[in-house]
Amino acid sequence: MNTTPPTECRAWSQLAAHAETWQGTHLRDLFAHDKERGAQFSAAMPGLSLDYSRQRVGAVTLRLLSRLLEERGFAEWREALLSGKPVNTSENRAAWHTALRAGRDAPVEVRDELSRIKGLTEKIRNSGSFSRVINLGTGGSDLGPRLLADALGDGTLDVRFVANVDPLELQRALAGATPEQTLFVVVSKSFTTQETMANAAAARAWGGKHFYAVTANAGAAKAFGAAEILPLWDWVGGRFSVWSAAGLAGACAMGFGKFEDFLLGAREVDEHFATTTAEKNIPALMALLGAWNTNFLGASAHAVLPYAHALRLLPAYLQQLEMESNGKRTDRAGGEARYATAPVVWGMEGTPSQHAFHQLLHQGTQAVPCDFIDANIGRTLSANATAQADALAFGSADGHYPGNRPSSLLRLEKFDARALGRLLALYEHKVFTQGVLWNLNSFDQPGVELGKRLAREILHGGK
Fold it and tell me: Which of these is catalytic: 324, 362, 429, 430?
């Protein structure tokens, strides 16, 4: 599989030259001269569509980007990812999170774990033994299940989340709870994560009696006193783990039926990603458009703007997914990446974001590419999402709003658990594809460790 720098690819040089031809081109003129642009620059799959007609691309751009993907050996990398081969090259591991949602085709251990999740979820929700579930985890052990619970929780259980080692978050999660009716779910692959284990110890000191664990370190979890221990395999990375038992608290919040729908939506995207040509492959297109904006049009940030209150935590989830995966300067061969990699990802739910920072998007001195997500919640939200995309693209005739600012519009047929599964899987495959483009291992996080090591030294009197 190709591990050379992308700058050595012929298509990269062609794209750099092609980008120069876009200097004087405005999206307003492209739409004026091509009435079919909206239909031409779009792609769809069951349940959603991507309208990228407001991106600063043309047919030649797409051909060159597709050629770059081919030169990067994308087809071989994609097959390796989906078949469980070791694409995490620094740790010689697979990144086989797609197996977690493969249904009947999943490995037997995955099907067995899913059966246990179902049994535990139904017991927790229906037995009356617990009135509150508190998830103790951080990073991928927190952001995914927290998003699920916030987006789709039905109120049957009071499900809360604690990620910060600051005691205030745990205090607030415990407010009004009783030890007898509170279940703590401790999610840590190593069962040594400093913040998580500090919170677990504090929960036990509070009087916590009921602990479940999701971990690869069953011995440590048993020694801690966990009554139930669900496995995390070494081929499941933290920020790709919401589909596993790491999503237990989310499943408790929304019910196992919705959790199954969530997995099904992701599986549909996996099939689309595996079988669709680059020109109509939605996650591949998202990756290519992001690379075009970042590497050839000079964008250093990317905004995600979901027009649904249920998706208010999506930008935070994607910050970790994208920036921890591809926020790297060391490539797969150990060399320095002499080109831009992951942009800064940020965002907020619309319409509140329009009254917070859209001023910068429309009139700031730096163009920020955007993903608008129309979740089809209601006409007002959909109209605002489209209007903001149009305003960024076309600006105003008086010049006060320059326009020509790229965005994509992801439209969901409706918002439900299946749609959320599709959405998260789209961005996962986008991240993987950009890792292939940029010659990065998207499945390790060596930069995270330095700060942890220095903190330990300070705590133990090293400084």
Answer: 324
